[in-house]
């Protein structure tokens, strides 16, 4: 399980807890509060799952790229790390934020 998949599982636990607490209270304010929390967790889960699909696709492409580079050239692990970091930053726009 990837770290992002683990995070999604944690979000699901929090979502389910919010749904359970929503059912416990008769107070309208608390019910709406927990309903809102559950919805927020649901939105976060949807976003994280979509991002996870992009992550898997990108990493699969990169693995194929690396295999090709290693076969064609004599690249050191240090050079491969620089290539990997550059590709990761470009693919996930880590430097734009």
Characterize the biggest β-sheet. Answer: none
* Overall number of structural domains: 1
General form? rod-shaped
Averaged pLDDT: 83
Output the structural class: mainly alpha
Calculate Rg over CA atoms: 20 Å
Number of strands: 0
Beta-strand share of residues: under 5%
Total helical elements: 3
Distance between the termini: 27 Å
- Helix percentage: over 70%
As residue ranges, the low-confidence spans are: none
Q: Report the order of strands and helices.
A: HHH
Characterization of this structure:
With 97 residues, this protein is mostly helical. The chain has one domain (3-92). It is built from three helices and no strands. Helix 1 runs antiparallel to helix 2 (28-72) and helix 2 packs across helix 3 (77-92). The mean pLDDT is 83.
Structure, briefly:
The protein is mainly α and 97 residues long. The chain is 86% helix and 0% strand.
Topology overview:
Layout: H1 3-24, H2 28-72, H3 77-92
Helix pairs in contact: 1-2, 2-3
Features:
97 residues, mainly alpha, single chain, 3 helices, rod-shaped
């Amino acid at each position: 399980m990837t770290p992002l998949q683990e995070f999604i599982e944690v979000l699901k636990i929090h979502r389910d807890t919010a749904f359970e607490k929503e059912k416990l209270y008769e107070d309208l304010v608390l019910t709406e509060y927990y309903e809102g929390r559950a919805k927020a967790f649901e939105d976060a889960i949807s976003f994280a799952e979509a991002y996870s699909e992009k992550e898997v696709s990108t990493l699969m492409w990169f693995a194929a790229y690396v295999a090709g580079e290693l076969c064609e050239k004599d690249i050191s692990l240090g050079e491969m790390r620089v290539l990997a970091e550059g590709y990761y930053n470009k693919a996930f726009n880590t430097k734009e934020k």
